[in-house]
Amino acid sequence: MRPLIRPFIIVILIILFKGSLGQTFVYPSFNNNGHNLRDFVPDGWTLLDSAFGDLNNDNRSDAVIVIQKQDSVLLLNSDDDTVLTQPRMLLILFKNSMANNFYLKEKNNSFILRNDNPQRGDPFQEIKIEKGILKISFQLFYSSGSWYITNSTYKFRFQNNQFYLIGADYSSFHRATHESQEYSYNFLSKKRSLVKETDDAKTKRIITWKNLELSKLKTLKTFVQPFSWNIEKEVLL
Q: Quick check: 229 and 174 in contact, CB under 8 A?
């Protein structure tokens, strides 16, 4: 019995050890003010992406940055599995022209997807600020297990001291059949358009519209993670 008991105990200890590591990781604190973007990147972290533009309609160029921890740590993923990964954070910085610096308006440690699946490409694509709208884009591309390439872009607007999700674009493309679906959501007008295309002898392009039933707008704080909102059948926005 002893040769069987020892490996079993070792496995249990490894599981408990991994779980404790994932639970003890603490996201860093930040300076409230800084003269440049590097002032908001803690030691041991790196600047992954950045964008500039006026977000609060004060004619000053604000900034949004994505930072990533340089070393890997054990954390739970969306499937509740403990994985070795590099945490990421989204920081929104408003420009204070009087003091000629930036101040931290909002931070988020869940919305920027991590690159922690060896069968999937890095899901995070880019951040942009266009006409006062913060746009955050992702892509799901798997080397095995799925024929689909899925893209999504989320559009946030700052109003009433919150970043509200006012729109989103979602598309899927089947690599074998070349069939595609493109959804465009406007959460202000509560409308959704869908463009479907097929690749055959009689290529078809069909556009349909749908009214959305929404009680209130989601925000960057309440919409925890991309591809988690089952907004309609077959769509995880």
A: no
